[in-house]
Design goal:
Layout (H helix, E strand, L loop, with lengths): L6 E4 L5 H12 L3 E6 L2 H13 L3 E6 L5 H15 L4 E4 L14 H29 L2 E6 L13 H21 L4 E8 L8 H4 L2 H10 L8 H12 L10 E4 L7
Helix pairs in contact: 1-8, 3-4, 4-5
């Protein structure tokens, strides 16, 4: 999967799955635009790529803020001329029951996880139309399929919506030679799941429900993402692919 000179924007690339995806694209020769709301982790990922001989730059921006996104895209276009691939990965996951979840947490989760994907897909999609095509991959979750999470109602709602949005994007964007798919990770070993993994009883139950018998690594997700963005997947669009060790089989 050679992405030499392709321009890839990865949101939420300061850590976890987003960072792993950015590093993987850089390793295949892509020019990687690193986005994150945390300027320190954002810069760290970009510097790591550059230090290894790759090409990357960092943009600190909130994907739920349309003006911030558009400003970022103008900078990227001025630097590299286009965006060939968009990875909507930025996300938040508050841990509260429905009875205790406040409106701010609900709104912020929907804004980042779903509205952010809409803003980026719309804005980058317009750029891709002008350039003749592209690829978008949304990082959803098996929580948006048939494996809801207790005390994660806002997260589940946002990821369920993201899968639906992926399909509608695929339908509308196909005429412009833009493919759109989603990847639905299971429990991946990242900072976001660190607190959950400290619950030994919960961890044991998770492992019992995973046929492959282990939690996922960020690198388990990157291979599927790179495949979906490659010419090998040129006839694949509108799909939501589980990467979960077999936990959800649909």
């Amino acid at each position: 999967m050679n992405f030499k000179d392709k321009v890839v924007l990865v949101t939420g690339a300061g850590r976890g799955i987003g960072r792993a995806i950015a590093l993987a694209f850089a390793g295949e020769g892509a020019r990687v635009a690193i986005n994150d709301i945390n300027p320190d982790t954002c810069e760290a990922t970009a510097k790591e790529i550059v230090a290894s001989g790759g090409e990357a730059a960092a943009w600190h921006a909130d994907v739920a803020n349309k003006l911030a996104v558009q400003t970022m895209l103008i900078d990227i276009e001025e630097r590299w001329g286009r965006i060939d691939i968009l990875i909507n990965n930025a996300g938040v996951e508050p841990h509260k029951s429905i009875l205790k979840l406040d409106e701010w947490d609900w709104s912020r989760t929907i804004d980042v996880n779903l509205k952010g994907a809409f803003i980026c897909s719309q804005s980058v999609g317009r750029m891709m139309v002008d350039k003749g095509g592209g690829v978008i991959v949304n990082i959803a979750s098996i929580a948006g399929r048939a494996a809801g999470l207790r005390d994660r109602s806002a997260y589940v709602a946002s990821k369920t919506g993201l899968i639906g949005f992926t399909k509608e994007c695929a339908r509308e964007f196909a005429a412009h030679h833009i493919r759109v798919n989603a990847v639905c990770p299971g429990v991946i070993i990242t900072e976001m799941t660190a607190q959950l993994r400290q619950d030994e009883a919960q961890l044991k139950k998770w492992l019992e429900d995973i046929p492959l018998g282990r939690l996922g690594e960020p690198e388990d997700v990157t291979g599927v993402v790179l495949f979906l963005c490659s010419d090998a997947a040129r006839y694949v669009t509108g799909q939501a692919i589980n990467v979960d060790g077999g936990k959800v089989m649909i």
